[in-house]
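Raw record, unedited: ATP-dependent DNA ligase
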Amino acid sequence: MGKLVYNALGHSFDIEDRTLSHLRVVFMNKLRRGEPFMFHFPVGDGSGTRTLWIHPSIPLVFHFYGSRAPQLNRRWIDDLMHEASSANGLSVIAEPDADSPEARSA
């Protein structure tokens, strides 16, 4: 289980390392392009959803606890990038099968 640390006050949110690895790629690509976006994710205790404004001026830290970086699923990154570019912003969606025929043709 990793942590996304948001802003200078150190607000942190637990996110599974595999998911966090994919989110890091999406966040860094969007921010490198100067494209701020909304990020929505469920609160761990099931009490609702949090929404964060992701912008280059807001400090972010990706803290991983696992010792090995997971292999990235390019199809999931593409799907998450599409979500982040939508009017509703980024929500974590289920990871697609990287070996499915749709993934190979994309």
